[in-house]
Amino acid sequence: MSGIDFLLHGFAIVLLDPANLLFCSIGVFMGTLVGVLPGVGPSAGAALLLPITYRLPGIQGILMLSGILYGAMYGGSTTSILLNIPGEAASVITCIDGYQMARKGRAGPALGIAAIGSFIAGTVTVILLSMTAPIMAGMALKMGAPEYFSLMTLGLLVLTFLARGSMVKALIMTVMGLWLSQLGMDPNTGQHRFTFGIVRLWDGVPMVPLFMGVFGISEILENLEKEIPVEVVKTKIKDLFPNLEEWKRSVGPIIRGTFSGFPLGLVPGAANTVASIISYAMEKKLSKTPEKFGTGMIEGVAGPESANNAAATGQFIPLLILGIPTSTFTAIIYAGLLIHGVQAGPFLISQHPDIFWGVISSMYIGNVLLLILNFPMIGIWVQMLRVPFKVMFPLIILFCLIGSYSINNSNFDVFIMIFFGIIGYLCRKFGFDTIPFVMAFVLGGIMENSFRQSLAIGHGTFLIFLYRPISAVCLGLGLILLAHSVISSKMGKGRPHLLDED
Amino acid sequence: MNMKRYNMLIAAGFLILACYIFLGSIELGLGQLRNPGAGFFPFLSALSLGILSLILLLSSLKGAVTQEQLHWPKGIHRWRIMLTLSTLVLYAFVLNTLGYFIGTLLLLLFLLKVVAAQKWALSISVAAFAVLITYLLFGVWLNVPFPKFLGH
Fold first, then answer.
1. Domain ranges of chain B
2. Which site from A175, A283, A419, B63 is most exposed, i.e. has the minimal number of CB atoms within 10 Å?
3. Whole-angstrom Cα distance, residue A123 to residue A129?
4. Lowest mean pLDDT among A25-39, A130-144, A460-474
């Protein structure tokens, strides 16, 4: 069977039971709901809703998760267009022309083209994914432990390079994340490492309470410091479908955004942001009236939104084929899949093709349902935007509490969440970016394992990382990044800060 | 205290932590290079953390690290954060005794009425509605075994 056949098989599995669609729809609804909440970014919102999917059986949980993720992403675009508040770095670009369109009374088409562009990008890229995934998986199988270790090292170095603030601080956060991942029982020797005599830490630091604390609680604490104004554009949202002229102007940007965004999904850490920036820059360059960008050009919404979604699909390649999440968005999917017993990696596609294609088709169905459900409900989301943060934040905290509690039914996990909430808040205060920390924590276990295996393969020599070409190239690139940031800091130049912030 | 001082203090804190991890990793056993022990990776982490915190310390001393302005919340905003955090810790302690229903209702009421300064009617209705809906969704539908009042 080819990739496309498998994909169709995946759709058959998912669509066999109508209840599956219901769960995905609930996911889309709730995802959009948290995505539009003031003061909660899409990644934080999706993390908040993870617990709802825990207790659903396999594919239903994954379907709901996909609905939540797409819903939360779209919710983030809605706040960008209507409030000029980007939910994440990737939506900053959407704000530029989206908000201006809204001010000119074209909020409907801006929201519409964001959903339609995302949908088209999702459709094309899921086909591209089904064609490339089997080839990539074949290549991934040839990769050994040294390649894995070096690739993850490079990924973390790219993340630190793109992080906010000083590079040294970002590297410290990465090392802290790695160390934290070592807490608990050593899988090889059975020794307890840095558990401080706490039995609950024998299994390591639980991932979801850490997410909830770092993304959810710390964001709330930061928002409690200020008054969040609620100024929704006062315009009637009508005509969600763009007019003929707007359609004509959007087709090119959507196609270009889709094809440029997909390969950029492989960029660790900032795929969505880089994709939307490149798309915006490209459209401005190609436009006959580049000076009008920033005044409400639909191309400035259609291109970046499509590119953003295409990159989101592209990120499934490192996630599902290599088992390496490269962004907070995929780290949440990674955690969600683990909870449902799906271990992503090169063997997933060959040993469990039903799960692999089930996940891919679930993600696509999430995308389709988003389009169908969100058009009639846009009025509800606009109303949601008017709910003040002061009324919302206790409810967001409640979701964090339930989410942390319900994994192990233990209030120890609630303490873990609060602890990392405080840590996350302090990190924000002192200019330490939390994304390298969380990503290093997620990747730490796999990295250590690959590292130990590599040394065993290489009979105890570190040169094993240089003897293997892919590994050597990855480490070389990492070294160049480090050298670049050292040199540019000596010369007083900054680095780009592109991480997908919440 | 300015950001430079904070950076120096933080760097010193990380340096102490690096020493702690270093000693812990030695105790765990480094093993051999062809068969690394449980302490080997933490040992590398400790070394990296030590070097990085020294760099942070030295560059803060020289003023090379970006000196962002640090704004601590003041007045009512500081109180909001302190109250929210302490209520959360208290909630985690009493959850198993008070049970989900009563504990969460009190938590939400406190956050809405005291921290967010909302009216009584709104606070009570939002808190009661949220507790009821989440209980039905998670406790009844998804079978999360929420703690009950005094364990009953």
1. 3-62, 75-151
2. B63
3. 10
4. A25-39
